[in-house]
Amino acid sequence: MAAPVIESADDPRKFVEALQRAVTMTRMVDYGVPLGDAVRVRTATLEEPFPSWPDACEHLANRHAHIAGEAEAAGRLLTARYAWRASAALLMCGQLAFNFDEPRKLELYEGTRQALLRYAALDERFSELVIPTKDGDLYGWVVRPSDPEPQAAVIVIGGLSGWGAGFLDMARALADRGILAILAEGPGQGLTRMRSGIAMNIDALSHFGAFLDHAEAAGARHLGIWGNSWGGLIAAQVAARDPRIQAACINGAPMLAALPEQRTAREQLFAFYGTTDEAELRATLEAFTMDPARQHIAGSLLVLEGGNDPLVPLGAQHAFTALTDAGKSRIVTWADGEHTIYNHAQERSALAADWFAEQLAVPAQ
Known about the structure:
Elements (H helix, E strand, L loop, with lengths): L11 H11 L2 H6 L4 H10 L8 H21 L3 H18 L8 H18 L5 E8 L2 E8 L8 E6 L10 H8 L4 E6 L4 H5 L13 H10 L4 E7 L1 H12 L3 E7 L11 H11 L4 H11 L11 E7 L22 E6 L10 H15 L6
């Protein structure tokens, strides 16, 4: 889930102010944007004549790409790697300005992928993942631990607008603890949606089984799933359906899947679920609402919540604990925590990664 992005495209200042509420500085930094660049984007886009948010992000992304190219030519590969990561993160943030899959959004997202491929060429533990299915290719990224034969894997899922390598730091926290991390762009997300045309629906949830199959093929025998924002609801649905999942983390998700009033939040849901019919979307959302009377999560459950989350009220996620057995759930609260705990990203990722390591029987690193 994401905060409303555009409430008035007719007023440039209101457009940018709404976008800045959705794409906070802490969110940008969590996605991998250097702090100074996050400040520059936010400052520049509020100065008349109000340069485009995507253009501002792309301008700085190109600067980092230039730095990376020069560093590669000089053999400074670590510098190049950091610069490609920054470039990719800025392009990821640039595409957040668009709710539907118009050409400019796809252009920015494809640019994100190209920067990440350059990054991957310099990091042997990071690689793209493409899984063919009868409905089209599923996309994602893999971060491998130093152990060539990891016994555990966690699937990391984004929400309605931020996906894949936007959660690279979470994946690195897992890999640093000996866990294979798969940054899944599931149905309704990323290139799985924009290239393959695979939208989310109840039947499409089964596609996450392909990511779990990949983890098992890599040797993992203990599996977890970590969903962020609306992806937390998706993670809960998958965990209730696939008995292979031994541990699930829900970070900033609603248990009740309802259609919001804000136009742009609705647009993100329409794009995610692949429909423009409101009645159809309402019926789909009803099917996605979790019900302890019908659904059960056999594994352990971790719920992360923030007291300063404008999208999911404090305490709203506690209902998820009814889906699992007594004593198998844990709730961690940050009193000042923003949505998905952007403002305590390092602590959040370390805590969740440690929890997964404990639940999936990974020796302490």
